[in-house]
Amino acid sequence: MISFNKKEALRYFCAQSDDKSADTLLDAAYQKLKSELQPRFTMKRFECRIESEEEGTVPSLVLLDNGTVFHSKDLARYVGKARELFLFGATLGSGVDIALRRMALTSVAEAGAGQAVAAALIETYCDDCCEELRKRLPEGKHLKWRFSPGYGDWSLEEQKILFPVLGCAHAIGLTLTESCMMAPVKSVTAVMAVTEDPESNGIEETLEATDREESAWVEFNCNQRAMERQNLFSNSKNKCLRCSKTDCEFRKK
Question: Three-class SS of residue 252?
């Protein structure tokens, strides 16, 4: 059973914690969705390295030991010095998609609540899967946060590379449309690099990158940057602090 993080659902629903009507809608949506959950995940480990497309340029290629190549400066920066990574995929199952479509026929508010609940559930499920993987890593190895296609400059089109390598369709029934939409919709794919540095978990590399390049993920003035550095280390579970999309309506404050 996936635990229901109502606080996250409220955030996805763009509602305040004291909004009782929203609270009621989310509870009702969860009751309708929980019996439809069929969560499944898959992951594969690869050795990896980063390279530049041209000598003297910023690394923009992530190469796996099976010959797969991903193209993204931000992904290459995320991988950094890591020499191994996991490709990861997870889904709540097709039953949730069917239930959401059914709710959309009932009311717009219920449909919105259902979408928010499902978004919170898939994030919790992914977090739980990753936590189990962390526990199984050899001593001295540490799992970085998830980096998904669509983050930064990593194109969604590269889902077409990731899906067959991970074997999503066969392993968990997760498929990809020509326009790179996942089916079932409430699903996640990601790269998770493995580091030997227990402190940074990818955070320090992100901050160093902002020192080196004007095109880094987040631009800071001096005071903002100092505050962000403190927040990153004090609240490493806040994925929004690692994301460059500062205008996102679902961004945690």
Answer: coil
d(CA 201, CA 102): 41
Torsional class of 170: left (φ above 0), alpha (ψ -120 to 50), beta (otherwise): alpha
Place of tokens 């392993």: 171
pLDDT digits (tens, 9 = 90+) for 52-78: 999 889 999 999 999 999 999 999 999
Nearest to 174 by CA among 77, 57, 40, 63: 40
Distance CA 49, CA 152 (A): 19
For the chain, report the end-to-end CA distance as a whole number of angstroms.
29
Give the separation between CA 111 and CA 161, rounded to whole angstroms: 32
Helix (H, G, I), strand (E, B) or coil at 223: helix
Beta-strand relationship, 40-51 and 61-64: antiparallel
Nearest to 96 by CA among 168, 35, 162: 35
CATH topology of domain 6-242: NADH Oxidase (3.40.109)
Residue 19 has which token pair? 């909004």
Q: Is 43 helix (H, G, I), strand (E, B) or coil?
A: strand
Radius of gyration of the chain (CA): 19
pTM for this predicted structure:
0.81
Q: Which of 61, 55, 58, 82 is nearest to 158 (CA)?
A: 61
